Amino acid sequence: MTSDVARDKAARLLKKQGSMSSLASSDVHRGKNLGSMSTVSFTDDPGHDDHYRPPVKYENSYQTAPDQKFPTAKIRYIISDVLESCLRHEKYEPELCRQLSKTTSEIIKTRVREMNIPRFKIICLVHIGQLNNQGLRIGSRCLWDSTCDTFSSYEFRNNKLFAIGSVYGVYFE
């Protein structure tokens, strides 16, 4: 009697844990007492991958200053090269300039990332507007560390439009 109670308790516990008893119910009804019980785990399903390893989490390096400075002169050259080549013969059309602003910004960001500057977050902005004898001021405000973070910008003009490209390099600790 006590072994039956213990077997039922073990079977309930195994069901809660995700395993099934291989002891058939017909064995219990026939009065057979086998004395042992084997289990099959649900992890034996075909969908289970034994070779799964969770991604490795690296410790913080706590490097609070960059190994190299942000190369503002090289980035200014990249901005001027992209703006000159993309906008040299363009006229101001609002829809076209909206797309050109996005495209030139992505090109500049890609070329700056190709420089492989470690641990700097790159933010690129390009403003394009109509040149019509008006005044315009563009400002930006950021919360940053003045010893590590910096920016580079370039202003382009032709007969019909102006463009201002800015790249911010924010040190990512």
Automatic annotation (TrEMBL):
GO CC aspect terms: cytoplasm; cytoplasmic dynein complex
Pfam families, per the entry: Tctex-1
GO molecular function: dynein intermediate chain binding
GO biological process: microtubule-based movement
CDD domains: DLC-like_TCTEX1D1
Start and end residues of each stretch annotated as Disordered: 1-63
Regions of compositional bias (Basic and acidic residues) in chain numbering: 1-11
Family of the protein in this entry: Belongs to the dynein light chain Tctex-type family.
Record protein name field: Tctex1 domain-containing protein 1-B
